[in-house]
Amino acid sequence: MSVDGHEVRLVQRGIDRPPTAAALSGSVAVERHRTAISRSGLSAPMQALARWGFLDGAPTVLDYGCGRGDDVRALAAAGLRAVGWDPHFAPDAPREPSEVVNLGFVLNVIDDLEERNATLRAAFGLAKCVLSVAVMTVRKGSGSDHADGLLTTRGTFQKYFGQTELRAYVAEVLGREPVTVGPGLVFVFRSDEEEQSFLARRQRRATLAANDRFEMPLPPASARAGRSSAYARHQDLLDAFWSAALELGRLPEADEFGRADELSAGLG
């Protein structure tokens, strides 16, 4: 799939082709293409890239493992130059060096470790500025053990990463330390200069947010007492939320905090 202005071109192969050898483990066929979902808006990693300004100024964007191409179409609607490649849905699309490369929820569906490593290296090799890597972190549904993850009843594979595990894995394979942006989401920068520029931007946001927080007028003493009681009841949850905010340099979105539902239920 490729986009030039608002033109989208998709080259697609039949979905009934046999799985490749790399998708086989023993006698188990893993149907990776069945994990591709349709979206009505930008995916979480693309939203993160947009929030941090990496989609400003019409950069070149490569969605590496674009699935059905919803992100590429959304970027095209915004006037960006975007290309989407996928081994199943758009295998003949070009894979060219781009300023921004997104590897969103791809690594977690590859059951072969060597191929997973090669995919990560290939995506980073095409990133001129930044590579966004997103994986699944919260186990959803059930399945049987397969390789280092689970084989679902739909014949798909899922590898669930811990946050520390993801950072260590990316650093080991690429030889560069990633920057955590949210749960299951890291940025890897081509150069130290690009990384430091991002970290400085994030620190400025955190400082502005802190200044706004402390400039707010204090509520009456009775209200503060009630808040102290609420904090005591939910201290672990609130501390986790604050840690996520410090790590991101801003308050996390609902999909960036793994205990968002618990927070909403406990505090409204």
From TrEMBL:
Keyword set includes Transferase: yes
GO biological process, one term: methylation
Annotated keywords: Methyltransferase, Transferase
Gene3D superfamilies: Vaccinia Virus protein VP39
InterPro entries in the record: CHP04096, SAM-dependent_MTases_sf
Any one Gene Ontology molecular-function term assigned to this protein's record: methyltransferase activity
Protein name: DNA phosphorothioation-associated putative methyltransferase
